[in-house]
Design a protein that fits this description.
Chain lengths: 168, 104
């Protein structure tokens, strides 16, 4: 093997092998952490199912005998992995729904909602009304030029008013 | 201080509207957190540093808003909303705004 073909193999290894390795590691670890996170979410959601969440502006059926309401909130930032980012880059060429990123954002939103519910449970409430979802751009990804962008991530911010369904 | 994001305070009546109050904060994490986020971006998972950043920002913005309402002589803030904007990588602005009222 001459020196030139050795250099070609090395270049190929760096430009093709390394990204493939990273995407592979991302697919493996990202997939495992995604499914374990989702099963944890399902378990916690079942536990907190008794907390009634509505997006109504006022608590339905509230009377003066109920204890005072309190603002509760939750937030979650979940990172994308190398595999998801690569799939999205491909999807961006042809357009259409990116199922991998939809799933990522859903996880962030469920996590934020659960944190809010846990806060409400900690304060002794059993219902939340006027639920609002917000988003944030921590990385400045929407406006930054390519190469200066931060990590790809899903950010979910949720707020609501916690109240007690039963009167005192 | 009663803080809610509903238009009324359930069980109480609003006797006086004091006006709009707001609080904002821009927070950044140290460069170590940003590098950690970049690494985490390969394998996925929660970016705890950034979640913390949002929680701290929200608390700070809310306490500034509450201080403003107290200065106006209000005892409650209703219809609280949050808004965010990006400044640069690894930093975020969080703003909380609501209507300061006197409720009985």
């Amino acid at each position: 093997m001459d020196k030139q073909s050795e250099a070609t193999i090395l270049t190929l290894a760096i430009y093709v092998g390394l990204p493939v390795l990273l995407i592979g590691v991302g697919w493996l670890i990202g997939g495992i952490s995604e499914s374990s996170h989702e099963s944890a979410l399902r378990k916690r959601e079942e536990e907190l199912q008794y907390i009634e969440v509505t997006s109504m502006r006022t608590p339905p059926g509230f009377s003066a005998s109920n204890s005072p309401c309190v603002l509760v909130s939750g937030e979650a930032v979940i990172a994308s992995d190398a595999f998801k980012s690569w799939i999205f880059a491909l999807k961006n060429i042809v357009g259409g729904e990116s199922k991998t990123y939809s799933r990522l954002f859903e996880r962030a939103r469920r996590e934020a909602l659960l944190r809010m519910k846990e806060q409400a449970r900690g304060l002794g409430f059993d219902a939340i009304c006027n639920l609002r979802y917000d988003c944030a751009d921590i990385g400045g990804n929407a406006s930054a030029p390519k190469g200066k962008r931060g990590a790809n991530m899903a950010v979910a911010i949720v707020s609501g008013t916690a109240w007690c369904r039963k009167g005192n | 201080m009663v803080v809610v994001n509903t238009e009324i305070i359930p069980g109480k009546s609003i006797v006086e509207v004091k006006g709009l109050v707001q609080g904002n904060t821009v927070r950044a994490k140290n460069i170590g957190r940003d590098i950690a986020a970049g690494l985490k971006n390969m394998v996925g998972g929660e970016l705890k540093g950034y979640t913390e950043l949002l929680t701290e920002s929200r608390r700070e913005a809310m306490s500034r808003m509450i201080a403003q309402a107290e200065a106006l002589g209000a005892n409650a803030i209703i219809n609280v909303r949050f808004s965010t904007s990006a400044i640069t990588a690894g930093a975020s602005e969080m703003m909380a705004y609501g209507t300061a009222v006197v409720a009985e």
